[in-house]
Amino acid sequence: MTKILIKGGHVVTAGKVTQQDVLVEGEQITALGDIPGIEVHKEIPAQGLLVLPGAVDTHVHFNDEFMNTMSVHDYESGTLAAAFGGVTSVVDFSNQLPERPLLHTLEVKKQEAQGKAYVDWGVHPVITHLRPEILDEIPLLVQRGAPTIKCYMVYREEGLMVEEKDLKRIMKVLQKSGGMLMVHAEDNDLIEKHRSPLIQKGFTQAIYHARSRPPEAENRAIRRCIGLAEETGARLFFVHMSTKEGVDLVGEAQDKGVEVLAETCIHYLYFTEAQLERKDGIKWICSPPLRTQEHQDKLWQGLEKGQVAMVTTDDAAYSWEAKLKGRDRFDQCPNGIPGIEVRLPLLYSEGVSKGRLTVTQMAELISTRPAEIFGMAPKKGTLEPGADADIVLFDPEKKWIMSQDTLHMAADWTAYEGIEVTGRVEKVFSRGELIVDGPRFLGQKGRGRYIQRKLK
Ligand SMILES: [Zn+2]
Question: What is the pTM of this model?
Answer without folding.
Answer: 0.98
